[in-house]
Specification:
Elements: H1 3-12, E1 20-25, E2 49-50, E3 53-54, H2 55-64, E4 69-75, E5 92-95, H3 102-115, E6 123-126, H4 136-146, E7 152-158, E8 163-166, E9 175-179, E10 185-194, H5 195-205, H6 212-218, E11 224-227, H7 238-253
Parallel strand pairs: 1-4, 1-6, 4-5, 7-11
Antiparallel strand pairs: 2-3, 6-10, 7-10, 8-9
The structure holds cytidine-5'-triphosphate and the ligand C[C@](O)(CO)[C@H](O)COP(=O)(O)O.
Keywords: Isoprene biosynthesis, Nucleotidyltransferase, Transferase
Site (Transition state stabilizer): 32, 45
Pfam families: IspD
């Protein structure tokens, strides 16, 4: 069945109430966030302080502020000692089943959600621990767009700049051509899909896919693109910490 036909079928069938679960992959090492001239930090980027709190605490606060979020599962690496003796929220669970890639971490987390009582048709919203600026309003907008949809979708940002393709060859980078950008979006998170469909897609796609939507695309689906925002960037490079801190402090000052 095409996504369009499945949407029509979903619209004409009686309303059911699948739940929304949050899944936060938090098992990365943050290699690109380490400045070339700095020693490696003791903790990965998601645990470094940003605006007075470990980055992941901002991420969790935004996800847990969404009332329709049934529970949130944080997936950390087996070696993670951060959560020992730390107070947690009643709707938060932590599983030390992170994998070697983000896709493996998410796949292991989906299995854990099923053990926690999630059903195959429930929705999961996968959100990077390192996107600590997501606003609960954006998460709600994604849920509103995806709940009536047969497939699901992701927050994304229309490309704001002119897009250049690099020429092949050694030496300094040079432009090969300017690429049409009117149909290009930057993928963000959360990415929201049905749990069983996403698990099947990830298993078929393998560990190399860098987001959930890619796995669904490889399975033949066309996920919805829901406008996110420039502030929902992923803390990836050293400069990103200062930007994230400035935005969070400014939000705090504005109440
Ligand atoms: N094996 C992995 C790799 C990544 N992630 C998580 O996926 C999110 C997005 O990944 P990215 O920003 O690429 O994080 P890292 O893999 O940690 O960064 P880098 O590639 O720079 O090492 C992060 O919250 C990260 O913790 C994960 O849970 N398990
Ligand atoms: C999922 C993601 O945040 C979408 O932009 C991103 O792909 C994950 O991290 P990476 O930088 O691709 O490793």
């Amino acid at each position: 069945m095409t996504d369009d036909k499945a949407n029509a079928a979903a619209a004409s069938s009686p309303a059911s109430a699948p739940r929304c679960w949050g899944l936060i992959p938090c098992a990365g090492v943050g290699l690109r966030a380490i400045a070339a001239d700095s020693p490696a930090p003791e903790l990965p980027k998601q645990y470094q302080n940003v605006a007075g709190q470990p980055m992941v605490m901002h991420t969790l606060a935004a996800m847990l502020a969404v009332e329709r979020m049934h529970r949130v599962l944080l997936v950390v690496s087996a070696a993670d000692g951060f959560w020992q003796e730390r107070a947690t929220d009643a709707r938060l669970s932590i599983a030390a089943c992170g994998g070697a890639t983000r896709a493996e971490t998410v796949s292991n987390g989906l299995q854990e959600l099923m053990r926690m009582g999630a059903s195959a048709e429930d929705w999961v919203l996968v959100h990077d621990a390192a996107r600590c600026l997501v606003a609960s309003e954006q998460v709600n907008a994604l849920i509103d767009a995806c709940l009536p949809d047969a497939v699901g979708g992701l927050l994304a940002l229309k490309l704001p700049d002119t897009l250049k393709q690099q020429a092949a060859g050694a030496g300094p980078a040079r432009v090969a051509q300017t690429v049409e950008r009117s149909d290009k979006w930057l993928a963000q998170t959360p990415q929201m899909f049905r749990i069983a469909a996403l698990q099947a897609a990830l298993q078929a796609a393998g560990a190399a896919v860098t987001d959930e939507a890619s796995a669904m695309e490889l399975a033949g689906h066309s996920p919805r693109l829901v406008p996110g925002g420039a502030q929902n960037f992923k803390v990836t490079y050293p400069d990103d910490f200062a930007l994230a801190e400035a935005v969070l402090l400014q939000r705090k000052a504005c109440g």
